[in-house]
Amino acid sequence: GWGGGYPEIVKENELFERYYRELGIVPAGEWGAFMAALREPLPATLRITGYRSHAKEVLHCLKEKYFRELQSLEVDGQKVEMPQPLGWYPEELAWHTNLSRKILRKSPQLEKFHQFLVSETECGNISRQEAVSMIPPLLLNVNPHHKILDMCAAPGSKTAQLIEMLHADMNVPFPKGFVIANDVDNKRCYLLVHQAKRLNSPCIMVVNHDASSIPNLQIDVDGRKEVLFYDRILCDVPCSGDGTMRKNIDVWKKWTTQNSLQLHGLQLRIATRGVEQLAEGGRMVYSTCSLNPIENEAVIASLLEKSQGALELADVSSELPGLKRMPGITKWKVMLKDGQWFEEWKDVPSNRQTQIRPTMFPVKDEEKLKEMNLERCLRILPHHQNTGGFFVAVLIKKSPMPWNKRQPKVHQKLPQRTGDSEVTAANSDNGSECITEEPTLAENEESKKMQELQNSDTEQSKKEGVCGPPPSKKMKLFGFKEDPFVFLPEDDPLFLPIQKFYALDPSFPKMNLLTRTQEGKKRQLYMVSKELRNVLLNNSEKMKVINTGIKVWSRNSDGEQFGCAFRLAQEGIYTLYPFIHARIINVCIEDVKILLTQENPFLSKFSSETQKKVKDMAMGSIVLKYDPDPEKPDDLQCPIVLCGWQGKTSLRAFVPKNERLHYLRMMGVEVFKAKRKEEESESKAAEEVQHRLAQTEEGMDVEDKEHDLVTKMEAEIGEESSHTPVESSAMEVENKIEDLDQSSKNANNHVSQESKDTDTSNVKD
Asked: What is the model's pTM?
């Protein structure tokens, strides 16, 4: 009949079983457990972002409130299984649970837990990420001063981990390190931007290049240009994804050895390009969500062989104690999709030599094989700790790559690569040819051209501080044309009133301020770290930058009459706060609750201390700071910095809805409400946003639209709006918050629209 719906996918694949049984990657006697685990759904895992000062508060809230409520809960007569911490992840900041979405919606307590997860994820306080996907960033051993390249970064969960590690010390607003996150797929880059934006870091740049031919970048070091080499590189390559069978059920039906054979060459080219750009002494982590040695050990062995001792596999057996892992294998065979096996390259018939390549086979020389230490690779099997399948190898670069030993030569090659970086890579078969030696005859001409190019580029950049998209037409054939990144000139009159109004510290790095408009009124001011500014200014011709910087100030249409045309943006307040010496109001926890639950409360609602501080302060944008009281352990024990606005008779917070809900939860205020009611108000809000957008003039960027909506809402709310006391009802609390964040939602809609069509042909976690 018609009642059955879609037929259930049969979790069987004879070729898969035959292949992996023969290779022996699963220990003897464990095959049944291995296959049984693959047929079970994958537990949901979540990670609490570790760099935030209130990560411990989120963990405390999760354990003491939400997990405690689940302890004695039963759904359909079955006891709900409690979430458990991942034993190998530091400080209990990662958890896994078998609760499915279906179960989550069956009980009010579980639905409350689900909404908490969704809301905290949108704030960036929690990342829902597969357990094995958390391993590569941990093995990179990142420090805040490291320059990091994430080669195949989308959708961005690992990138987020790297950003957190840079900000390990929250008292340092600008770490010396940075993350350049790259992806070849333009649409997936916007998904990456969305993930990175939640972490509000000035040290992240998203770029759009083919990882196998990602261009060499230059930086200015004491007035001379040098090639940028990275201290850490994450090389999480596209793969066949047979380690993801538990969540991507289609793999059961579609799996064949052909996928691995087709991807091996690309994986090797990407890994080769990675080690070329790695600094000496640097660390690169190569990872896949595949179990296949053709995509794993074969790539690593080939890389080690052609590196001629420049690379070595790091022994990470003592890192991440508690993580069960299998060593890498040293012997394997190659199988075609028709089931035909080959043990050596010489056995492959000529008509198959385009499908099968010599680099796919293990090294025959026993001495060489022993020196490679392939057993230092890690293979994670699903049945060992109820995870997905995964492979990781950690490489350390001891000296320059043999085809790239004359370092100055690389400098000379740079300008030529500027124009044809893609062509060079397209013609190369293995990434090593990207920087091969050229006949010395052409070198003088090349170096002259290089000098001219560099000089004109530098002069132009220094004059205007403009970093536009690459001029190459080839680059514009795909994706959106990005607005330029324009740094504020030192003598820009725009900055003086801002500096005076907020009493900015003399050490404030104003040279790092940028806008996305070359002409006309500057509506938003963004900020990057000094190191990323260096990268942007010196590479505008060879790099397609999708996004960088965090918003720190927004133009307020009536701002001039309050002494400053720009109001503070919550997104960048933690970066700005250390430099601001005026317009700061310290508030108590009761004041914070009022600010977060009422639209525009009268000053009379606040504590007498707050009223005194506000009394002599001019109207306009302000900073609201809450410092915890160690003598009141039951109160929130982490500092909070909020952007606000002081009116004639009122005080309000400019904080996005999800952040409001987050802070209220941390303070013990219940913010759950019935799902249906939420959906109704969400759809009404969406309609209102659409209506307002239709009236917004054409050509505005997302940030401009956000600004206009905020201004309009300010006008609507006005000074004389109705003021309601804090209600005890949870529904009332959230209803008041509902309309305060249309602007942020609008900006997010742009990103989520882009990410809807993301390509999933090559599985990446």
From this structure: 0.81
Cβ-contact 148, 282 below 8 angstroms: no
β 620-626/640-646 pair status: antiparallel
Mean pLDDT, residues 378-401 taken together: 97
Give the SS3 label for residue 309: coil
153 is in an annotated binding site: yes
| Predicted confidence (pLDDT) per residue in 203-257, tens digit | 999 999 999 999 999 999 999 999 999 999 999 999 999 999 999 999 999 999 9
Q: In angstroms, rounded to a whole number, what is the distance separating the alpha carbons of residues 360 and 382?
A: 25
CA 375 – CA 297 distance, rounded (Å): 9
210 marked ligand binding residue: yes
Return the H-helix or E-strand segment holding 142.
none
Q: Which residue's structure tokens are 């706060």?
A: 577
Question: Do residues 518 and 466 lie in contact, with contact meaning Cβ atoms separated by under 8 Å?
Answer: yes
Q: Radius of gyration over alpha carbons of the chain, in Å?
A: 28
Structure tokens at 302: 């080939």
Distance CA 548, CA 536 (A): 9
Are 204 and 174 a contacting pair, CB within 8 Å? Answer: no
Q: How far apart (Å, rounded) are the C-alpha atoms in residues 553 and 411? A: 38
- Determine which helix (DSSP H) or strand (DSSP E) holds 149, and give its type and residue range: strand 147-150
Q: Cα(269)–Cα(297) distance, rounded to whole angstroms?
A: 15
Structure-block tokens of residue 244: 């993801």
Tokens describing residue 757 = 């069509």
DSSP 492-561: -TTHHHHHHHTTB-TT--GGGEEES-SSS---EEEE--HHHHHHHHH-TTT--EEEE-EEEEEE-TTGGG
Instruction: For the beta carbon of residue 720, count every other beta carbon within 10 angstroms.
Output: 11
Judged by DSSP in three states, 115 sits in helix
Q: Is 289 a catalytic residue?
A: yes
DSSP 640: E
Structure tokens at 362: 């293990």
Q: Which residues, in sequence order, are bridge partners of residue 514? A: 487, 526
Phi-psi region of 322 (alpha: psi -120 to 50; beta: other; left: phi over 0): left
Q: Is residue 92 within 8 Å of 101, Cβ to Cβ?
A: no
Is residue 735 predicted with pLDDT exceeding 80?
no
Tokens of 661: 């809900």
Cα–Cα nearest to 652, from 564, 739, 745: 739
| 156 marked ligand binding residue | yes
The token pair at 416 is: 């030529």
Dist. CA 714–CA 696, nearest whole Å: 17
Count of CB atoms within 10 A of residue 627's CB? 12
| Secondary structure (DSSP) of 606-639 | S-HHHHHHHHTSPSEEEEEEE---TT-TTS--S-
Would the annotation count 157 as a binding residue? yes
Residue-wise pLDDT for 328-372, tens only, equals 999 999 999 999 999 999 999 999 999 999 999 999 999 999 999
- Residue 422 tokens read as 């893609």
Cβ–Cβ < 8 Å for 208, 544? yes
In this structure, what token pair is assigned to residue 688?
A: 């209102």
Alpha carbons within 13 A on the beta-carbon side of 299: 40
Residue 154 counted as an annotated binding residue: yes
Tokens (6 digits) for 294: 């053709």
> Catalytic pick from 123, 235, 239, 289?
289
φ, ψ for residue 310 (rounded to 5)?
-75, -25
Four-point Cα dihedral 43, 49, 50, 52, nearest 10: -160
Give the helix, strand, coil percentages of the chain, each rounded to 5: 45, 15, 40
The residue whose two tokens read 């893609």 is 422
Distance CA 195, CA 449 (A): 40
The DSSP annotation for 374-401 comes to: GGGSEEE-HHHHT---EEEEEEEE-S--
